[in-house]
Design brief:
The protein is mainly α and about 120 residues long. The chain is built from 4 helices and no strands. About 0% of the residues are buried. This is Ribbon-helix-helix protein, CopG family.
Length: about 120
């Protein structure tokens, strides 16, 4: 790598001066995922992932899925625009909320499919 690789590609943009109150208000809007109040300034779009408050209620998990299940999960995620981990949480909750008889029926049906 040469020193020319370290050169800034775009000239630095001069930003207009703003008051402290405007800066704080704009920072609060950014944190809430709202558009910026400052004219001429572009804000980054809000992240679609988990925020700091909700990450405490989630734990990382590792488990094994079949290739077919992975493909189906990918397809559902692409069509719905919902993250795969969120889809799995939804499906787990749906199964959990069923009566034990309904759960047993689903499990037996899946067991019969693989025989």
């Amino acid at each position: 790598m040469s020193l020319t690789d370290l050169k800034r590609k775009k000239p630095k943009v001069d930003r207009s001066k703003i008051s402290v109150e405007d800066f704080i208000a704009d920072a609060n809007n950014y944190a809430a995922g709202k558009p910026t109040l400052l004219a001429g300034q572009k804000s980054k779009p809000p992240k679609r992932g988990l925020d700091k408050m909700t990450t405490k209620s989630y734990r990382h998990a590792t488990f094994t899925l079949t290739e077919a299940s992975i493909a189906q999960l990918d397809e559902i995620a692409k069509e719905s625009g919902i993250a795969k981990s969120k889809l799995l949480r939804i499906l787990i909750k749906e199964f959990y909320d069923k009566s034990s008889g309904e759960q047993g029926h689903i499990l037996q049906r899946r067991k019969d499919d693989h025989l």
